[in-house]
Amino acid sequence: MLQYIGKRLLHLIPVLLGMTFIVFMIIRLIPGDPAQVILGQQATAEAIAALNEKLGLNEPWYIQYFNYLGGLLTLDLGESLRTGVEISKEVWPYLAATMELGLFAMFLAVLIGMNAGIISAWFQNSFFDYAAMIIALIGVSMPIFWLGLMEQWIFSIELGWLPTSGREDVRDPVSPITHLYLIDTLLNGRFDQFITVVKHLILPGFALATIPMAIIARMTRSSMLEVMRSDYIRTARAKGQKMSIVIYKHALKNALIPVLTIIGLQTGMLLGGAILTETIFSWPGIGRYIYEAIGFRDYPVIQSGILIVAFMFIMINLLVDIVYTLVDKRIKYD
Amino acid sequence: MKKQSWYMLLLLVVLSVFLVACNSSDEGTDSNEGTEDTDTTTDEGSEGTTDEGATGGVLVYGRGGDTVALDPAIVTDGESFRVTENVYDTLLTFGEQDTTVQPSLAKEWTVSEDGLTYTFMLEEGVTFHDGTTFNADAVVQNFERWAAGSAEQFYYYNSMFMSEGESVIASVEAQDDTTVVFTLTRPQAPFLKNIAMSPFAIASPAAFDQLEDNPVGTGPFKFVEWKRNDSITLEKNTAFWKDGLPKLDRVIFRAIPDNSARLNALTTGEIDIADGINPSDATSIQSNSELQLIERPSMNIGYLGLTNNRAPFDDVKVRQAVNHAIDKQTIIDAFFQGYAEPAVNPMPSTISGYNEEITGYEYDPEKAKALLAEAGYNGEEFELWAMPVPRPYMPDGQKVAEAIQKNLEDVGMKAKIVTYEWATYLEKAKNGEADAFLLGWTGDNGDADNFLYTLLDKDNIGSNNYAYYSSDEAHTLLVQAQSEVDEDKRNELYKQAQVIIHEDAPWVPLAHSTPLIAAKSTVQDYLPHPTGSEALTNVSVK
């Protein structure tokens, strides 16, 4: 097992290397001069030339690329062109914000999506089945910006239950320790703030969860249906075992593998930052951080931001592969 | 069995979290009320002892973007100045809602006959937030810091006080503790206006190396915390040098990028002021008794640039024809909801030196057709660039472009609308790759030079003169005006320059828009400044 993990980690190197190269080239192919964007419309030609020189942007691209790689070897992610702050220093709060939202959304998606899928499979062709699958279809095709604004309108403005945006009540701010506010509020012993933070998570969490929730529901349903037709389930049912035990103990275990794959991929995607959700709910996450960096042609932030996201994506999928072996003892990596 | 109990455990955890969340939705509001209660008690307490407004509560200001850095000398963006205006003071400042020069840290000043020596008498007993004393030495050190830096480091200092590699400021000296003397190498007419701009705020010399994320000034509010891309919190400077001010206890700037979401947050009371309101939302705000619509005095220009060295706009007759072809009033009614004035000259009429005698090209398609025929325009298609982002001077570039396209089609000109992502758009337009393009400008200091020279002088081709307009005649006048200290003579020069620009018609000046802001009706005495950033010293929340 350890050998397998080691091997997978080694595979990371060429993948990440290739990715840095592709990202590096693509962002330099878009027109637009970072120095111009940093200095604004007001800038003079001399100031732009001077800034380009200072930022090393007048070097040939391959020199810039190797400088960047050299930095990466020493874990130096570079410096934001716009704010002048080291990326390794400023990236964690963004990443933490995205992780908190992404994991919360995934939690909702798995919980609701899997149960909806199981029940749909069990009562195949029932009213619940049709309703759940129609809702899932709508969920997959719902534009998030529309859903987000609707949520704000219904739950914040009309009903007044939940806040429209942000991570916290800015009038009573959370003092960050880990930057994962759910944990920070508890560490600070502020249970009232914990509740406020949960309330702030609900709307963006649901907006972000819709698509994975729908995908997981559909995947669970079809996977369960397949398993339920197999002989051993029939045997179990013939033995007169309770429904819940048949489903959760016998069927789900075997139906879980494809669902897990989907969960892994979807989690990776959510952690890559949900730009739309983060924008509508003004969530200070990594998706918006990278997206805004594109607008400002902040090359180092785009490069390193995408690198971090890719790294996490790969790690999550590695984790899923390991979880397979726990769920299904027949799977062994040797 | 094991799996099942795991699953049950998970379910239990979820259920309890939900129950807690539901339960506490009441508790939550309770605790909110609790904090509000304590606020009101302190309100009452202080009202009992001092005059009204000594405690003005907490104000949350919602805006579209985050600050870049908190050192005003190194930034160029409005969202940075909006915060630094509240932390620092400048030697001079602008009027509450205009760009007249007013005393601030310098309570009085004198100018020598030849316009080369400026003497500033400073306020006494002012301290920086770190406890160090503000005095003439501190002013000198700030200017020395900017002068020693490079052009890309202190952008505004260099663009305002350097010209052709030569510094306008020869020396800054502390005559005594409260007197600073500036000696110039040549007269600079807008010198005092420049000194009043946000970038030239006086920071504590002891804090020079950490201003970017921990600013220390003398302003009404002290910096507390910055959560990037999220919020910046400032608290009242109890030792502020203006007695009884500021009124607010805390100011929090929150970045909410989506316009609709920002308005939603205002409606629910999560924020007290929302900047960047779409003109189309104005009516719904006015009809809501809990909100008020506030207009920022206009100091901008939205225009259609006609690249002067590209066919067909290399012919002045074609440019004049386009000016006659476009129906500005209809565009303003439709896409600015009336919150704009049709533009005649390249700068708004509130700026001194504005030429009232120019009447502008009236909307007259027949005249446009005649001019096109005279010019021998062959009906060739050209590109019309539409801005991809809303800006205060152009709330919806795409729709304005479509209206212009229709206007031009009516006189027989075929325009194809194209658009690019914003940074690309600016870059390509600056390189002169556009035929006709929508763009605009918000003034920095209310001086004619900041519009006419910056946007249309041949010196600025390749930077802000996107239209590639080059007139030697206008250039002579504009450069002469820069060092003319006599106000009337200077205004006359600008008026002449506007006549030349009007004849040459490098642009179609479209509109001077009124940027809109919405606030809770409880917000009092908020006076937005035409430059786009203002200190919230007098604001209070009832």
UniProtKB/TrEMBL annotation, chain A:
Question: What Gene3D superfamilies does the entry give?
Answer: MetI-like
Pfam families attached here? BPD_transp_1, BPD_transp_1_N
Q: Where are the transmembrane segments?
A: 12-30, 101-123, 130-149, 201-220, 255-281, 301-327
**UniProt keyword terms in alphabetical order:** Cell membrane, Membrane, Transmembrane, Transmembrane helix, Transport
Q: Which residues form a coiled coil?
A: none
> What does the UniProt entry say about where the protein is found?
Cell membrane
InterPro entries reported in the protein's UniProt record: BPD_transp_1_N, MetI-like, MetI-like_sf
Cellular component per GO? plasma membrane
Q: Which PROSITE patterns match?
A: ABC_TM1
Question: What GO biological process terms does the UniProt entry carry, in alphabetical order?
Answer: transmembrane transport
Its placement in the membrane is given as: Multi-pass membrane protein
Occurrences of domain ABC transmembrane type-1 (ranges): 95-320
Which family, according to UniProt?
Belongs to the binding-protein-dependent transport system permease family.
Could you tell me what this protein is called? Peptide ABC transporter permease
From TrEMBL, chain B:
Q: Which GO terms describe its molecular function?
A: peptide transmembrane transporter activity
Q: Domain named Solute-binding protein family: which ranges? A: 100-462
Keywords attached to this Swiss-Prot or TrEMBL record, sorted alphabetically, are: Signal, Transport
Instruction: Note the CDD domains from the entry.
Output: PBP2_DppA_like
One Pfam family of this chain: SBP_bac_5
**Where is the stretch described as Disordered?**
25-58
Gene Ontology biological process terms in this record: peptide transport
Q: In terms of domain of life, where is this protein from?
A: Bacteria
Where does the secretion signal sit in this chain?
A: 1-21
Q: What SUPFAM superfamilies does the entry give?
A: Periplasmic binding protein-like II
Compositionally biased tracts (Acidic residues): 27-50
This protein's GO cellular component annotations are: ATP-binding cassette (ABC) transporter complex; periplasmic space
Q: Which InterPro entries match?
A: Peptide/Ni-bd, SBP_5, SBP_5_dom
UniProt record similarity statement:
Belongs to the bacterial solute-binding protein 5 family.
- Listed name of the protein: Peptide ABC transporter substrate-binding protein
- Species of origin reads Caryophanon tenue
